[in-house]
Amino acid sequence: MPRTVLYNCEWLPVRLYKKTVPACPFCGTVGHRADTCPRPKPGRCTSCGVQVPAATPDGPTEHQCIPSCLLRGGGHKTGAAGCAGRFRQPVKSGSPRGSKLRTTGGGGAQTGSDSQDWPKKAPAVKSNKAEPKKTNTGHSTNVTSGTPSDPPVLVKDFPPLTPVQAQVSCWGGAVSGPSPSPSPTETTLHQQIGELRRQNQILARKVQELEAKQVGSSEPVQEAKAEDGDDGSSVTSRLTSVSRQDADTVVGPAFITRYIGRIESLEHKTEQLEASVAALPTQIMSVVHESFQDMFTAALTQALPEIVAQVSNSVLKAVQPWGIAQIKHTTQSDFLQVKRKSASRQAAEEGFSGPAPGPDRTSAP
Q1: Helix (H, G, I), strand (E, B) or coil at 4
Q2: Domain membership flag for residue 38
Q3: Are both 167 and 241 inside the same structural domain?
Q4: Which residues form the domain of 149?
Q5: What is the pLDDT of residues 14-35, one digit of tens each?
Q6: Which residue, 89, 238, 240, is CA-closest to 162?
Q7: Is the pTM of this model over 0.85?
Q8: Residue 29: beta bridge partners?
Q9: Strands, E, within the chain: which ranges?
Q10: Are residues 147 and 220 in the same domain?
Q11: 3-state SS, one letter per residue, for 198-214
C-alpha cells in the first residue's frame, strides 16, 4: 500500500479504510444500525441501556446514567472513538473462515485455530482443482490461492479475533452469527440498578414534597407510585444521601418560590445598605461639625480668662497715659479758674470799699 497519493496536484497520505461493527442502541443488539432497527424498545436509554419507565417524547426520564458499550462492555458509549471493538476484523485472504475445515491434498483437515498460523505454513500439496486467479482491487498484489509458492501478500498484520468481533465475517460481509444475549448476572445487575434508580427518584420526590410543604407552596407535588420491590430500611438508608443530592438539582415551584424570596430579601438588604452608604457622608459631616463645635467651645472656655486679662492689660496700658494727661490738664485749668475768680472778687471788693492804705502803686518808678 503506498504511503501517499498524488491527487489534485497534492500529495495526500493514504490510510486503510476499516468498516465499523454496526450496533443499535435502541434495541441493544449488534448487527444493524440504529436507523434500520426493526424492533426498537421505547424507554431504553441509548447510553447506558437501562429500561427507564415513563419515557417522554424528548427521551428517557432523569436517571443515573452510566455509559456501557455494547461491543466491549466498557464504561463508554457504543462505538466511541477509543473503543477497540468498533472496527470489523477482516479475514485474511486464502484462509478458512470460522471453524470451517480446510482439506489438504493428503486428506488431512485444519480447524479455524490452525488457520491463524496460516501465514507461517504454506500448503504442502496443491489442491486437486486449481482456483481461478483473483485480483485484489485494494493496495495488495495479485494472489493465486492454489499456488503454494506464491502466498498472498497481506496488507498488515491484524490483531487476534475478539469474542465480539468474531461475529463479523469480512470487510464487505454482514454479521455471521446472532447477537449475543446478556448473561443472567448482567440482567440481574441491570434490574437492581433500575430498581435503585426508581427508589432514588421516589425519595427525591418525597424530599421535594416536604420542602414544598415547608415553603408553603400552594401547588401540589405529584407523588410517585412505588413499584413492587425491595423497600427495606437498608436500601433507604443507602439512598438517603444520594436522594438529597438529586433533590437539590430538581427545579420545581417550591424551589423557585424559595429562591425568589431569597433574592427579594437580598435586594431589600442591598437597598438598605445603599441608603446607609448614601447617608453616611451627611452623618460624618454632622458628627465632625458637632465635635469641632464642642472642641471650640471647650478651648474658648479655657482660654477666655487669659484673653480677658490680656485685653484688659492692653487697654489699661493704652488708656493710662491719656488719662494722666487729661487729669493734669483738668487740674491746671481748675487752678487757673479759681485764681481768676479770686482776683476778680478782690478787685470788686476794692471798688466798693476804696483803695486800701498803702504805698502808691502808680508812682512807682
Answers
A1: strand
A2: yes
A3: no
A4: 17-90+134-181
A5: 988 888 888 898 888 888 888 8
A6: 89
A7: no
A8: 24
A9: 4-7, 10-13, 23-24, 29-30, 102-103, 109-110
A10: no
A11: HHHHHHHHHHHHHHHHH
